[in-house]
Amino acid sequence: MLFKNDVRLKHQMLQFLHTTGEYFLFLKGVFSKPQKFAWFRKQLFYEMNSLGINSLPIITIISLFMGAVITIQTAYNIDSPFIPLYAVGLATRDSIILEFSPTIISLILAGKVGSSISSEIGTMRVTEQIDALEIMGINSASYLALPKIIAAIIINPFLIIISMFQGILGGWFFGSLAGVVTSTGFVYGVQYAFQPFYVTYALVKTVFFAFLITSISSFFGYYTSGGALEVGASSTKAVVYSSIFLLVMNYLLTQLLLS
Amino acid sequence: MIEVRNISKSFEDKLVLDDLSIIFEEGKTNLVIGGSGSGKTVLIKCLVALYKVDSGSIIYHGRDFTLLNEDEKRDVRKEIGMVFQGGALFDSQSVEENVAFPLQMFSPMSPEERKERVNFCLNRVNLPNAHNLYPSQLSGGMKKRVAIARAIALNPKYLFCDEPNSGLDPKTSIVIDNLIKEITEEYSITTVINTHDMNSVLEIGDKIIYLFKGKKWWEGDKHEILETDNEEINNFVYASELFKRIRKASI
Ligand SMILES: Nc1ncnc2c1ncn2[C@@H]1O[C@H](COP(=O)(O)OP(=O)(O)OP(=O)(O)O)[C@@H](O)[C@H]1O
Ligand SMILES: [Mg+2]
Description:
The structure holds two protein chains of two kinds. Chain A is mainly α. Chain A has helices at about 1-30, 35-50, 55-75, 85-125, 130-135, 140-180, 185-190, 195-220, 230-259. Chain A has one domain (about 35-259). The longest helix of chain A is centred in the middle third of the chain and has 40 residues, at about 85-125. The model of chain B has no long low-confidence stretch (mean pLDDT about 90). Chain B starts with a strand and ends with a helix. Chain B has ten helices and ten strands. Bound molecules: adenosine-5'-triphosphate and magnesium ion (MG). Adenosine-5'-triphosphate binds near residues 34, 38 and 42 of chain B.
């Protein structure tokens, strides 16, 4: 029994190594000079719009409400005469900047953007559109994935900064509305002992996450084989793996940058 | 000219192509025929290196395709036009954009010249008014014709068509067959066509290769195919009631 599990584990490890190797080979193909720069630029703007701007509504909704919840919970938790009132604003600001906006919003994007990228590329694979590109002499991996990866790396930091403002705004508005903070106290707290490095840290994370989400999802889409069923399966894989690696990366970067 | 030397291809333990050697001639329509599942699509995909052959070589005018690296392969492929069995149109692009795409990527044409070329190609496949439709709005036969227009846009030196007229009505089918034959002769293209349509075979079969059990079972032209006494070929050719009757009448 033990032996049998051993074999299976070994098989899975090998499979994992194999997939990792394939992923890096894929990246090598992706990061080559675009064959036609004008076309690349056109695709880049298209993707910035479709991956970035189109995600704004969901980011806005989530940020406003999460900001509200963080504020209210913080206020209830530090209901002590020894802690000054403005601490709520400060704590809300820091948790939004450090973790909520860069990590949670990126996780949401991993779901939204990741599944759309991998199903788009996966569908192109199973309907032979990728083969058609290859036959024309086009480096299909680069043609399809590079604009998406670069677009997300450029646009996601802006989304995250917007989300930070929205989160704090939501905290201020709903916190005051619920009466758990005073408007002036909260605003004072938000400005108190502000550390610009936290924003830098958040944006560095965001860039890494953007790269992971788009490259992993493109990879799973690109290596789909079969039909509609497999397109669905690789889109699930894309979301699961980009989320896992995003969290691992979050841990590593936090260790590196904050300690 | 494309010379295929002793290629074999199997998937897992299923041997699909078994030691095939074929010469596809320039300026001629080379037809590969055979029953469904006989390996026609696999052969064409091996020819353009979408599938890697297990052994053997594929030589394009002296260049062995199986030995080239990715960059060198891309250079050869710029001279290739291909029509996939399912069309493989880019569904995010309109008909016009699909046909213009290879021009945009690889030719120095101005937008006006490009437009002219697109119109020319779409006219040749009898689709003068479909420019702004998207692939999801086309019928199966229209998709095929757009795919042909896209494949010939760059004046390829090698043209591969996987069942170019399946799903077309008999009249359009003949138009497409003749179009392919015309451009093949006009521009000395090496053209490879997969088909199991006997009308095409008799219409444009300059050179016919019959695949059976992964082997080249028979080779000849459109006249010889009616005369041969090869049993499998006869079963294939005279499978339909129409051809049986014609044969009876001629005897
Ligand atoms: N990617 C693949 N993996 C495994 N087997 C395959 C693959 N592609 C084709 N085959 C097998 O190879 C054989 C030949 O298939 P192919 O598609 O070449 O047939 P075909 O002659 O084009 O048929 P049709 O006229 O129906 O298009 C079939 O038995 C098929 O099951
Ligand atoms: Mg086929």
